[in-house]
Amino acid sequence: EAEKLIKISFKDEEKQKATLFCAEIYIDCKEYDKAYNLLSQYTYDKSDFALECWKLIADIYVKTSDIERADTVYSRIIKDYPRTDEAEEASYKRGEIYYTNQKYQKAAECYSSYISKYPNGKYLESSYYFGGESYLKSKQYEKSVSLNKNLIAKFPKSIYTYGAYKNLFEAYYTLENMSEAQKTADFMMNNY
Predict the structure, then answer these.
(1) Whole-angstrom Cα Rg for the chain
(2) Angstrom distance (rounded) from CA 59 to CA 113
(3) Helical H runs in the chain?
(4) Of 7, 23, 109, 175, which sees the most CB atoms within 10 A?
């Protein structure tokens, strides 16, 4: 029925909505090739519709665990649609896909890039946290300390604050900075 809707839609806006609707159904049914083939034919300009197609194509790559291609699509969104909410979201999602797939070094780099590019962004708290956690997991303890301390300083009441202190303790302990590890542990015992 969704395929028929595309064929009987005559106005551009109706056809675009029908196309996106049909692609979403294909994705939900795990018919990723059909969704990709439908969407890719509309990605040759920089229209809002092309942007919606790119977002769904990125979603296909995320769902199929093709993180390099997803990252390429997110990078394209950032380049072709700068200063949009979608570009900011794509910048954040670059870190998210690598973190989810346990590629922590690359995740840390992407989160750090987001923090630099969007110092007041809507994903700033989670970028500090997951960036700090990614640096910790990739054994870059000094960078982990820096991001976690920034998170605590900028967002002391964040849902990520406890995790940031936990990461700080682990980083300080691993770095054999026992005085800071002890201060962090004492703070956590008294406040959590």
Answers:
(1) 21
(2) 21
(3) 2-8, 12-28, 32-40, 48-63, 67-80, 85-100, 104-117, 124-137, 141-154, 161-174, 178-191
(4) 23
Residue located via tokens 């980083």: 171
Pair of tokens at residue 113? 């890039």
d(CA 176, CA 47): 54
The one-character DSSP state at 191 is H
Spatial separation of the C-alpha atoms in residues 143 and 112, rounded to whole Å: 10
Please check whether residue 137 is in contact with residue 170, taking contact to mean a CB–CB distance below 8 angstroms: no
What is the chain's pLDDT, residue by residue, as a tens digit (192 residues)? 888 888 888 899 999 999 999 999 999 999 999 999 999 999 999 999 999 999 999 999 999 999 999 999 999 999 999 999 999 999 999 999 999 999 999 999 999 999 999 999 999 999 999 999 999 999 999 999 999 999 999 999 999 999 999 999 999 999 999 999 999 999 999 998
Task: Measure the CA–CA gap between 120 and 75, rounded to whole angstroms.
Answer: 20
Torsion on CA atoms 112, 116, 118, 121, rounded to nearest 10: 50
As a whole number of angstroms, the distance between CA 49 and CA 11 comes to: 14
Rounded distance, CA 133 to CA 105, Å? 10
What is the number of other CB atoms lying within 10 angstroms of the CB of residue 88? 20
